[in-house]
Amino acid sequence: MNDSLILATAVRITRPVLFLFAVVLFLKGHNAPGGGFIAGLVTAVAVLLGLLVHGHGNRKTGRPTFLYVVAAGLGLALLTALAPTLLGWPFFTHSFGFIDLPLLGSVELASAALFDLGVYVVVVGNVVTVLYALTERR
Questions:
Q1: 8 A C-beta contact, residue 57 and residue 136
Q2: Of 19, 49, 76, 127, which is the most exposed, with the fewest CB atoms less than 10 Å away?
Q3: Contact predicate 95/33, CB 8 Å
Q4: Are 66 and 129 in contact (CB under 8 A)?
Q5: What's the whole-model pTM score?
Q6: How many Cβ atoms sit within 10 Å of the Cβ of residue 135?
Q7: Helices 5-28 & 111-135, crossing angle to 10 degrees?
Q8: pLDDT tens digits, residue range 86-110?
């Protein structure tokens, strides 16, 4: 645990901005540069900043929890890739549609977003697991 007031204050301000930026990168990733991978890296940096300020906390539950996160993200990405095959379409076929929401108007729903979400979860879980392993005290 770090006792630096300046670092703690900077992280308290920076982390929400990083999380919001990760959401923007994730949502813009289908039509512009970005997506699940880079959003996952930005989220992992936000988690790392929290690790620098608050320390490990309960180390016995930290790493295995993130390993389950990696497994869940990998399962979601694999299910998204395999689902079209189960329906008789080629592997990795993605589909999309539009829905009208009251305040947002017409919003695109794409199955590629589910795959990107799986990639995001895998990257966050993997990077945080590695960071925990590198920073834990022996």
A1: no
A2: 19
A3: no
A4: yes
A5: 0.82
A6: 12
A7: 150
A8: 888 888 888 888 888 787 777 777 8
Residue 3: the pLDDT is 74
In DSSP terms, 97 is beta-bridged to 109
Nearest CA to 46 out of 22, 74, 72 is that of: 22
Which is nearest to 113 in space by CA: 19, 15, 25, 43?
25
Q: Give the three-state DSSP class for 110.
A: strand
> In this structure, what are the phi and psi dihedrals at residue 41, rounded to the nearest 5 degrees?
-65, -40
Q: What is the pLDDT of residues 119-135, one digit of tens each?
A: 999 999 999 888 877 87
H or E element: which one contains 85?
helix 59-86
Quick one: pLDDT at residue 129? 86
121 closest CA partner among 45, 44, 51? 44
Which has the closest alpha carbon to 70: 90, 40, 99?
40
Positive or negative, the CA dihedral 66, 34, 26, 29 is negative
Query: Quick one: tokens of 11?
Result: 């992280």
pLDDT of residue 48: 86
Q: Phi-psi bin for 105: left (phi > 0), alpha (psi -120 to 50), beta?
A: left
